[in-house]
Design goal:
The complex is a heterodimer of chains A (356) and B (255). Chain A contains 14 helices and 13 strands. In chain A, 44% of the residues are buried. Chain A is an alpha+beta fold and 356 residues long. Chain A starts with 7 loop residues before the first strand and ends with a helix. Chain A has 2 domains: 208 residues, no CATH class; 130 residues, no CATH class. Chain A is globular. Chain B is an alpha/beta fold and 255 residues long. Helices cover 38% and strands 13% of the residues of chain B. A 4-stranded parallel beta sheet of chain B has the order 2-1-3-5. In chain B, strand 1, helix 1 and strand 2 form a beta-alpha-beta unit. The termini of chain B are far apart. Classes of the chains: A alpha+beta (356), B alpha/beta (255). Chains A and B meet through strand 10 of A and helix 1, helix 5, helix 6, helix 7 and helix 9 of B.
Amino acid sequence: MVEPFAPGILSKEALDARLDALLKEYEIVAPVNRRGQAHFSKIIEISEIEWGYSSSVIPPSKVIYQAEQLLMRFVNQDGSYLVVEQHPPSRQRILLGVHPCDIHGILVLERTLVGRWQDSWYAGERKRSLIIGLNCQNPGPDCFCSSFGTGPFYAPWMGQGPPEGCDLFMTELMSGYLIETFTEAGRRLLEGSELTKPTDSDLVEKDERHKKTLDQFTKHLNTDGLDALLNRHLEHPVWERVGEDRCLSCTNCTMVCPTCYCYDIVDRAQLDLKTILRWRRWDSCQDQHFAEVHFGNFRPSRKARLRQFVCHKLSYWMEQYGCYGCVGCGRCIHWCPTGIDLTEIAAEIRREEIRL
Amino acid sequence: MERPRIGIFKYSCCAGCQFQLIYFQEHLLETFGAVDIVYGRMETSAGSEEGPFDVVLIEGAITESKQADQLKAVRGRSKYLVPIGSCAVNGGIPAIKNLTPELEVEQRVYSRIEPIHSVRAHPADEYVRVDAYLRGCPVGETDLIELVTALLLGTRPRMIDYCVCVECKRRGNTCILVAEGAPCMGPVTNAGCGALCPSNHRSCYACWGPMPGANAPALARKFEAMGMPPDEIVRRFTEFGCPTLEFRKGAELYE
């Protein structure tokens, strides 16, 4: 038995047995293959987990920050409305197999949702979620987390990283899983499991796997002074060209982004007018009504909306939160029907500046 | 509004939207008897089309001049006028004929064309000002409930006017256009259906018509790059909502 917070190795069989036991106690949400794509879904059996997945369609941060959340009900009682707040369930659940980029996605999202201002619904969902991270050894063609230092293996980034963002962290090795424990809750999850002390060759293997994974990246983004660079080129022709020729304003980029937090509030009255439900739903700056105010819209063109998305992630976020709003997960690129790539946009602008 | 007086006028269509209303009306009347259907041939045998009405619902496309005349007259007798369903909102299925000369359409369908006085299929808003659009094929329940409750509460209805992708992503679906190259019209189609087809692994075929401001040319070019033949691209953008400016822009690149 090793010290509680020291890293340990758990064999594949022992891990499965442990997870099987946890499944009786907890709801486990893990990457599951549905028609060839990984989705974070509630699992019934351990065998459903797709350990070697590359990227999930919807990021784990948006399992916590749900697409549609019932905030409150207004109930008509004798002519006046009673406000009944809805709260997330308290049952603990485990988010299993979260890649480093997505853990950073959660941390970046939280600078908004539980930063200076506390969103009690998000905080409730977060509080009940234990997170088990997993180093990524299968980056996809659109992944560029290595450019931000947010992956593929965990390393502290902007002073943040898994110790804040997760309870346990795993790396798949030949001999099993190297497990790092960051919180007391994480340690409790492993109670009863026999961890062995990692050997030197285990640690060497981890480094080798890290290097091998880094070599697989085909997409890169030069982040050097990126925020200022984009700020200098808000009228660059790339915005108009990509916005008009290719952008569908379909919102797919923002919906799959792990750090996009925008939402809309909708009240839906039931037909008897006795109950009105107040919902919060994901919204998107790509929707043409998003920036609509009385008598107009301050981002009426697709050019302006596309620029808002890209510059918010790669520039404005820095001023707002002191970090980039992008963690390099590549989902906005992968799921754009017309293949709009924010790394290409940034590279085009940078090339221009070098030419000048 | 106390018991709004409602008139329902049907033009060229399958009447599916009125069926949707009838299912809905039963629920509505039993629950609180809130509205008076003053005129509506499928709903009540009594009543007169003279009005006046608080709300007139228009179903179907305008395909005859006398329909246009009646529509214009009804506008004057109603406080609010709302087209319901794809045919009335943007031409719908009847507007498929708009790509073929009218006489040829008539000759293909009818053996004697003397009693036929058809014109191009037009949405209601090409003839009269409308106050809201109740989209769908048939008309969508979320929007319908929103309209009725807003009317009763005296609030401004918030109709759905974003694209199908928004609902599809909120449901956590895999994008079949990207993942499988399915010819999905979701990115340009108005939502409200709850992404029904993509959620069942079928391409959206735009039955709700275009999302306002949709970038149809970008999607049409994507279809071309996927290897779709030009006539098929034109069909995708003219099956529903052929007269709309948004879909015209997609179709005309390949006509």
